[in-house]
Design brief:
- With 185 residues, the chain is mainly α.
- The protein has two domains: 84 residues, Rna Polymerase Sigma Factor, Chain: A, CATH 1.10.1740.10; 72 residues, Winged helix-like DNA-binding domain superfamily/Winged helix DNA-binding domain (Arc Repressor Mutant, subunit A), CATH 1.10.10.
- The protein contains eight helices and two strands; from the N terminus they run H-H-H-H-E-E-H-H-H-H.
- It has a two-stranded antiparallel sheet.
């Protein structure tokens, strides 16, 4: 069933149709929010807010077939609202110091030893570097690697050409290699 048909069913009172739209679009919305704000926890909250705003404003959608791009527009505006708000200046408890985990434990479980700690540190450093990239590079990386979107899909979502997506991905990868000190193979 197409997005347009699901929108029409939702507007007719069958809210289960919106659940299918959420299943289809939530991962892309989350990736877009994460790329915009550079914070995974905030991105999850913003994605939820986007989906709620989308549901509440569904009757304003003029072209039901364009639900995805309409919803992504809402996501961008939701992220911009958040970035402008006081929330942005607030610190999370986890950012104030210790991560709240006892030494030797990860997510409440005993860690597998030095190798898992090293791997977690590498992933943390990588995500930190990705989150510090300029928006245009962070956005394409998140959509390509986390959403597994094609260049063409990313281009349509962002309103740029596939060649621009390719150039941004190439530049983002180069920047990450330089920042992480990784030799190109």
């Amino acid at each position: 069933m197409s997005d347009g048909e699901l929108v029409r069913l939702t507007l007719a009172g069958r809210t289960a149709a919106y659940e299918e739209l959420v299943r289809r679009w939530a991962p892309r919305v989350l990736a877009l929010c994460h790329a915009r704000v550079g914070d995974g926890t905030a991105a999850e909250d913003l994605a939820q807010e986007t989906l709620l705003r989308g549901f509440r404003g569904l009757s304003t959608l003029v072209e039901p077939a364009k639900f995805g791009s309409w919803l992504c527009g809402i996501a961008v505006r939701t992220c911009l609202d958040w970035l402008k708000s006081k929330q942005r200046s607030q610190k999370r408890f986890a950012d104030l110091g210790d991560d709240g985990q006892a030494d030797g434990f990860v997510d409440g479980r005993a860690s597998a030893g030095p190798a898992s700690v090293e791997r977690r540190d590498e992933l943390s450093r990588l995500m930190s570097e990705v989150e510090s990239l300029p928006l245009e590079y962070r956005e394409v990386l998140m959509l390509f690697y986390y959403e597994d979107l094609s260049y063409r899909d990313i281009a349509a979502l962002l309103g740029v050409s596939p060649a621009t997506v390719n150039a941004r991905l190439t530049k983002a990868r180069t920047m990450l290699r330089e920042r992480l000190g990784v030799a190109r193979s």
